[in-house]
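Ligand-bound model needed. iron/sulfur cluster.
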Amino acid sequence: MIVNIDGNINRFYAQTLCMVFFPGAKFAEDEIATENTPIVDLIQRDTDEGCYAKATITIGKKTVTCEHTEPYSETNVKIKTEKVAVGVALFKAGEKFFRISPSWGILTGVRPAKIARDLLNGGLGLKEMKGILTKQYFVSPKKATLLGNIAKNENRIIKQMGDNTCSLYISIPFCPSRCSYCSFVSYSTKRLLSLIPDYLAKLMYEVENSLKLISELGQRLIAIYIGGGTPSILTPDQMSMLLGVIKENADLSQVKEYTFEMGRPDTVTEEKVRIAIEMGVNRISINPQTLNDAVLETIGRNHTVEQFYRAYNIAREAGIECINTDLIAGLPGESPASFQKTVDEILKLRPENVTYHTFCVKKAADILKDENNVYSPFDPNVGKCVDYAQVNAKNNGYIPYYMYRQKNTVGNYENVGYSLPGYEGLYNIYMMEEIHSVFACGAGAVTKLVSPNRDTIKRVFMPKYPYEYLSDKVTEADIHRTYDSFREFYDTHFKEK
Ligand code: SF4
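Prediction:
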């Protein structure tokens, strides 16, 4: 699609806004319009009354234009006023053009709960917060209530977190096979899987030294998350080695939550679960995505429903404290009835955590390259699935504790984590809300250093691909040089405190 901008409007923001009504849209600089190319014209001007914006959506012969003037206020910085003005004009035009009202309004960010928390922490009550979200950002009352509940639960968890705490993330970007909807960098071919031993050796070096640095910096490690990919692709011996390095170098008595993802049920064995528990892991994730074999086949997930139940029972019988299960609403070929059945069956199992995702197809996913794919970015049933999942989680005693949004989800819906009270996934909150430092190891890992008052965040990226991580782009000297920059950050921000 084509977006024409005239005035003070950030192009990336404009494109993100367009995706509210055009999920999956691509924005090529040199695109030549054909008869049905969607065109959005945006104009912004400063006026005495406030920031004026005009949005026009055109497809073929149909054109809709809307305008909005947002008054300047003492509480909003100018750039925020400009964003609101453009957002409102475009949202109104989209509503009129498509006769739909997307439930997240003009909230385009990944972390909407952060906005809700800021409003609550700024002294507003729940009712006033919802008023701002619905009137200023056009969020639906239902989603504003959800955000309010999440913000309240997050605030409670964050208050209990304590000072000078941090988390550790460890990346295992390998999977037993590739799901067709996945855009994540994860190696799954035989040749690439043969890199695992070398990868693990380097990773263990990094983990050991990161843990030493955390203790040198006087930080208390309270959450560990081993994610992927599929960490349970490691053999029992490999798992023992990696978890052994953590046990030797971390004070596990301080760690409140220790997660090991076993996302793919086909990789879960009694031995691996036993090793994880013996080494201190108290939370694992086993992700069926759906309990519909035909859909699992369509999305190329390469495991069955029966394998999920087997894996889940192994974990339950082994006595792990907390099991998370991920589900996805809007999968290709999934009807509302079959998704609802999945939700019912999962809630009957009473996992401590259930994370509901909305299907999201990014550019790299194989499913988009398949001419016969049944993916529809506008699937009208997804809203019903999301509602059903959320209402039934609540009716079964689960509380929403964190959420995030992605671009290009079907119907522009969200991802929400639910838990039984007392089992909230702590790392998910700490990481998503950026409230303390997360030290991250391995390919694709992103360390986030967060200052005590959370006004400064420094991100440090590891190379994305395991082969780069293994190359001389990441030498031991490089790792230690990076640690010097971490020390500098802590010297500057933590000594000031
Ligand atoms: S298991 Fe997860 S990370 Fe691995 S290919 Fe499938 S969706 Fe991607």
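The first strand starts at residue 2 and ends at 6.
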